[in-house]
Design goal:
The chain is α+β, with helices and mostly antiparallel strands and about 650 residues long. It contains 18 helices and 26 strands. A hairpin with a 1-residue loop joins strand 3 and strand 4 (about 280).
Length: about 650
């Protein structure tokens, strides 16, 4: 048995004398900045619970990561989750108080590294030592080095010391419990950063540690062999691309791609996320998707390693749908689980979530479990910091995630480049990018798979049809300033869902019927008046079937003349909508305020009318997977605006 266990290390180690290069590399924290509505979104987050946890929330204010005694499990992830999110959040909004807090956190952890090299709250205690809680800390520390190079030696030396103790533990079979065994890929990614940027002559040890993590961790090639935890799968989607870099085996990338496709085929949601209320939950619209899953499942690393467009498309869908939908618009409250068809957010007994509690979908400080409170704030900042990448030679710049940004970077050959992207995307189809450069270079823009009939124009030239290669439009930029105008129209698309139901999309946005609701405060945290738990109840009809062939897209062009309202992810605020013919049907409940599966072949019990669908991310109670009926040709009376809903009753 010992020989059998040893052979993979020998064979793999011999093959992996170097790391395979990724398709793209990231830019340092601070070189990509959000602007317009996206900057406002980060300001809203900072003004919400994310920017105030350090003041009142015990798991952060008194975390054992910086000398307190608060933690929620032996996983020791609460403090490191917060740190990983607040490093980019604080820098991107230039919040001095939060920046100083991240320095306090970093300095405390590094100052208390013990003689073995161990880092974290277990130092000086009898607590068991598991590797996992360090991985989010490393990601935050790496981004601090990017924005403040004076920290490089201190952070890099501490990480190398930790690698030595981790390698010894792995050889002894220590530090990897069942939970940590599923998340080894995050440590591998941190190790690859060391290898690529600061190997310090330790290349052999770094690769050996990667291999040992792989062979003592979950076998992600077999993720469907048994029931898996949803957030662990979201983490594990990065495992095989990370493995590819030290095995050089393209089969690792093929297996990752196949697993990704199978996941979304059997568990995917129109919101871009996949279904898992703890364990994988299939396609049912009333089952849940955990918020931690939403922020962990986005495929930035997969796209950067492989260059496969489907991963980047998925990131946009998740970020512009599932992420805002599961957080209150002021970002003081969040759900543990969101539902595609969510007709109430309240205590449900019995509830539709077999493994989670009856309050899992209320909006509050920490419904069901606290992990999502400290983890969700990484969502928007990490999306922003991965929105642009470079080719490995740093000669070319690539705009990956579309939205309003400002970029300032230095490419190869001391080429100083700035990019300013003006757009309302995903609420609009046009992006105007002003690019300046001191030397010529190739500039690439990702063209999403849903775009049809798009064009681009340089300066005052005539628009040309888009001809992307592997999802990227290449544009040669001469020294000086150039103006690029991209028009990226998309048709309305109809997605088939279970029970002959459908979901409606246009561009990256999923559209949903925003159910009229009341909000009731059911609990207020005594330490912070803004931290309330909300119960949402429906007060309007939601039992609609639609005729998807009648869907019409509407865009309020007057929104281009002013800033989008803040916060944008709230009922009635996005300038886009889709109207569709609908009728009320008999659609029963399946339990305490959650709907049964959409009825097949429903009969109308009310007159046809035109209803309004709005971006999923701006809804809190919704139907987004609809039963289908065939309209008898009714087109309604009056204008489209006559039938707008008023979702929130105050």
């Amino acid at each position: 048995m010992a020989v059998g266990l040893f052979l993979p290390f020998v064979a793999l180690g011999a093959a992996a004398s170097s790391l395979a290069p990724p398709k793209f590399t990231t830019l340092p924290l601070g070189e990509i900045r959000p602007t317009a509505w996206l900057y406002d979104q980060l300001v809203v987050q900072t003004n919400g619970v994310a920017g105030h946890m350090h003041e009142f929330y015990d798991l952060v204010k008194n975390t054992d990561w910086w000398g307190g005694d608060s933690y929620y499990s032996y996983l020791e992830e609460a403090g490191s989750y917060w740190f990983n999110a607040m490093v980019p959040n604080s820098v991107l909004v230039n919040n001095t108080e939060l920046i100083l807090k991240t320095y306090d956190f970093l300095n405390y952890v590094l100052d208390h590294q013990d003689e073995t090299g161990w880092l974290g709250p277990e130092v000086g205690t009898e607590k068991p030592r598991f590797l996992w809680g360090r991985y989010p800390f490393f990601f935050g520390a790496i981004q601090m080095v990017e924005v403040d190079p004076s920290l490089t030696d201190r952070v890099v030396n501490a990480m190398h010391r930790f690698v030595k103790v981790a390698n010894k533990m792995l050889k002894r079979g220590e530090g990897v419990d069942d939970w940590a065994a599923t998340r080894w890929e995050d440590f591998v990614i941190a190790l690859q950063w060391l290898y690529d940027n600061h190997p310090n002559g330790q290349e052999e040890l770094l690769v050996d540690t990667m291999i040992r993590l792989k062979w003592t961790g979950a076998p992600w090639e077999k993720i469907f062999a048994e029931e898996w935890h949803g957030v662990n799968i979201a983490e594990g989607m990065k495992a095989l691309p990370a493995t590819y870099r030290f095995t050089h085996n393209v089969s690792d990338l093929d297996a990752a791609s196949e697993g990704w496709d199978l996941m979304f085929k059997y568990h995917g949601r129109p919101s871009g996320a996949f279904g898992a209320d703890e364990m994988l939950s299939g396609l049912a619209a009333a089952r849940g998707s955990e918020l931690c899953l939403v922020v962990q499942s986005r495929g930035s690393y997969l796209y950067q390693v492989t260059g496969d467009l489907k991963y980047a498309d998925r990131v946009e869908r998740v970020t512009y749908n599932a992420l805002p939908a599961t957080i209150t618009s002021d970002m003081w409250g969040r759900q543990y689980l969101q539902q595609q068809n969510q007709i109430a957010a309240k205590n449900m007994t019995p509830n539709p979530f077999p493994e989670d509690g009856p309050e899992s979908n209320i909006f509050g400080l920490e419904p069901n479990y606290p992990c999502c409170t400290v983890n969700f704030p990484q969502g928007w900042p990490k999306f922003i910091t991965n929105a642009f990448v470079t080719t490995p030679d740093r000669a070319s710049l690539v705009h990956v995630y579309l939205g309003p940004f400002n970029v300032s970077t230095i490419l190869a050959g001391d080429n100083h480049v700035t990019v300013n992207v003006e757009t309302q995307y995903p609420f609009g189809d046009v992006l105007v990018s002003t690019v300046t450069a001191t030397k010529p270079f190739m500039y690439y823009v990702r063209i999403p798979s849903w775009v049809s009939g798009g064009t681009f124009a340089l300066d005052n030239e005539q628009p040309e049809a888009l001809k992307p290669l592997e999802g990227l439009l290449g544009i040669y930029i001469r020294p000086g300033k150039r103006r690029i105008t991209l028009a990226l129209p998309s048709p309305i698309s109809i997605e088939s869902r279970p029970n002959s139901s459908v979901a409606i999309h246009r561009g990256p946005l999923n559209y949903a019927f925003d159910i009229e609701r009341t909000e009731t405060v059911i609990k207020t945290d005594p330490r912070e008046a803004h931290a309330v738990d909300l119960q949402l109840d429906p007060v309007g009809a939601w039992q609609y079937a639609i005729d998807p062939s009648t869907a019409e897209y509407h865009y309020d062009s007057t929104s281009e003349l002013k800033a989008l309202p803040s916060p944008i992810w709230e009922s009635g605020r996005p300038p886009v909508s889709i109207s569709v013919l609908a009728c009320l049907i008999d659609w029963p409940l399946a339990g305490d305020m959650f709907p049964a599966d959409p009825p097949e072949n429903p009969e109308c019990v009310g007159e046809e009318r035109r209803i309004v669908l709005t971006p999923y991310g701006a809804t809190k109670l919704r139907i987004s997977e609809f039963p289908v009926f065939k309209s008898k040709g009714f087109r309604g009376n009056g204008s489209f605006t006559d039938n707008k809903q008023v979702p929130l009753h105050v």
